[in-house]
Structure formats: structure tokens, C-alpha cells
Amino acid sequence: MDIVLAALCGFLMDLALGDPAWMPHPVVGMGKCIAALERGLRRAFPKTPRGELAAGAVLAALLPLGTLGLAAGALWLCGLAHPALRFALEAVWCWQALAMRGLRDESRNVYRALTGGTLEQARAAVARIVGRDTAALSAGGVTKAAVETVAENFADGVAAPMFYMLLGGAPLALCYKAVNTMDSMVGYKNDRYLYFGCIPARLDDVMNFLPARLAGALMVLSAFLLPGYNGKNAFFIWRRDKRNHKSPNSAQTEAAAAGALGVELAGSAYYFGKLVEKPTIGDALRPIEPEDIPRACRLMYAGVGLLLLLFAVLPVWL
How far apart are CA 165 and CA 158, in angstroms? Predict the structure, then answer.
């Protein structure tokens, strides 16, 4: 129960405070470690496909296990001093493992630009949270990109870290964040990272497999519970389109959100000036509109609430 309370405190702190710029963040330290380890491993292993695969495998083992060990050790030492100190540190790390408030704030900036600013401002705002080219996006394209980001990041930025923190506390949540940060830094299919980033990317897929499907199911359930959402269509589109993505996990929540809102998401987009063909997700029962951005955020918050409720009552059932 202490883990659930720490997770709840972390959720409330993220809800209220987000990520203050003045506060040191574990992900920043993880990023620096990844950069340093990459330099060292590239020097230590042969510059061949097999050598780069091996170097990436070492990175995929060292960073998550090191993060898990350091976090667990720090909590153990704090517990020796006083149980309250351990709980406080765990709650803070649970807070920092979540990216819910930041995701809401960034998507709200896009919404405000669309409803009260210019299209150029909206493009600039959405460029902060998506990887696609945004310079030529229409207002509908900007809106769609923001909704997709909220839906997709509900899985890997909110539901997955909360899933792991409720299973194993802050150490396991930070271990997941280490894997997710590795994927965001080295999990690219380009000349530099095709082999080096292969195993870190696959590890991220594995760790997101269950949380992504749970997040999709919770988003569907949220659509049934929240007024103004189409729960029946959310379930239908989730079952039909949850594999319409090159990632085995990303379409889970995008499909649920598209069905709940009655809009079409995904489809082909430009990345670094190159058109990337992708299947669509959902049916365009109506045109997408800026109000769909806060609607997607409400789905996200409802899903998190259901996840907390699930883990709070599960020990009673068992």
C-alpha cells in the first residue's frame, strides 16, 4: 500500500507542479550517462554491425540495471535513517517519472495558438512535441498531430511509468524511464544507430508491450464513462486499428482515442523533408477540431485515474 500512496502523491505533485525548471531531473542524468556510455562503448567495440550490436546490448543492460540498483540503494539508505524520508524520496521520484502535466501544458499551448493565435504560432507550438515536419501543416494537421501526441504519450509517458511504479515502486519506474530515454536517444533506424540502437529499441518495445495495451483498454473504458465520448466506437476502432503502426505499441492508445473522438488520426507525414507512408487510424466521422486536444487530455486523466483505482483495489481482491 505504501507504493500506491507514493504513486498517488507523485501523480498529485505532477498534476499540480509539472516539471519545475529549477529542479534536477533524473532523465537529464540518464541522458548524460547514455551519451558518455555511447562514446566509451563505440571506442571499446569494433566498428562493425556485430560490434555495434554488442555495444548497444551492453548499453541496454548497464543503464537500466544501474538505474534500478542506484534508486533501490538510495531508498534503502533513506529507510535506515527514517521511513518518512524513504517515502518522501520515493514520492518525488514517482512524480519525476511522470510526464502528464508537461504533456497537457504543451498540448494546451497548441490549443491556445489554434484558437487565439496564428497558424504559425500553432505550428511552432506543435513542433515542440512532435518529430514530423510542421512548417506546411494546416490547422487540421496541427490539431491531429497534437491529439496523436497526447494519445501516444499517454502510454509511454504516463501509463507505463505508473504501471511499473505500482509494481515495483520508484526504482522500477526509473528503470523504465532509463529504457525509454535510451530509445529516444539511440533508437533510430539511420546510419549511426541502425545497429547500435537496435537492442535498446527492442527493449523499449518489450517493456511497453503490456502497459500500452492496458493504456488502450483504460482509454476505451474512459470513453464509456466520460460524457460526450463514443465508448462503443472507441472499442471498435481499438480492436480494428491497434496494429496500424510500425511500432507494436503506439497505435494502441491512438486507436482508442480516435474511436472515442470519432476522428481519423495518423496517416502519411513528412519527416526531415521525406514523405513517410503510414496507415490511418480511425474513421473521419467528423472533421477534427481544436477542441479535440483538451478532449484527448481528459481521456488521458481519466485513464490514469482508472489505473490508480485498479492498483488500489487489486490487493483487496487478491
Answer: 11
- Give me the pLDDT at residue 270, please: 76
Q: Which of 145, 148, 159, 157 is nearest to 216 (CA)?
A: 159
As a whole number of angstroms, the distance between CA 309 and CA 318 comes to 14
Whole-angstrom CA distances from 260 to 104, 160, 232, 263 are 18, 21, 8, 8
Q: What's the pLDDT at 316?
A: 52
| Best CA proximity match to 214, nearest among 145, 144, 161 | 161
Nearest-angstrom CA–CA distance, 170 and 93: 6
b/e per residue 221-231 (b: at least 16 CB within 10 A): bbbeeeeebbb
- Mean predicted confidence (pLDDT) in 48-73: 97
Q: Is 113 helix (H, G, I), strand (E, B) or coil?
A: helix
pLDDT at 318: 45
Residue 193 reports pLDDT greater than 80: yes
> In whole angstroms, what is the distance from residue 164 CA to residue 208 CA?
10
Q: Looking at residue 283, what is its pLDDT?
A: 95
**Contacts of the segment 60-64: beta carbons below 8 A, 24+ positions apart:** 60/179, 60/182, 60/199, 60/200, 60/203, 62/37, 63/30, 63/33, 63/34, 63/37, 63/178, 63/179, 63/182, 64/175, 64/176, 64/178, 64/179, 64/182, 64/203
Q: What are the CA-CA distances from residue 161 to residues 7, 113, 187, 247 (Å)? A: 10, 30, 19, 18
- What sign results for the dihedral spanned by CA atoms 246, 265, 307, 101? positive
Please state, in angstroms and rounded to a whole number, the distance separating the CA atoms of residues 129 and 107: 8
For residue 317, give every residue at least 6 positions away whose Cβ sits within 8 Å of its Cβ, in sequence order, or none. none
DSSP 211: H
Mean pLDDT score, 113-129: 93
In the DSSP assignment, the letter for residue 278 is: -
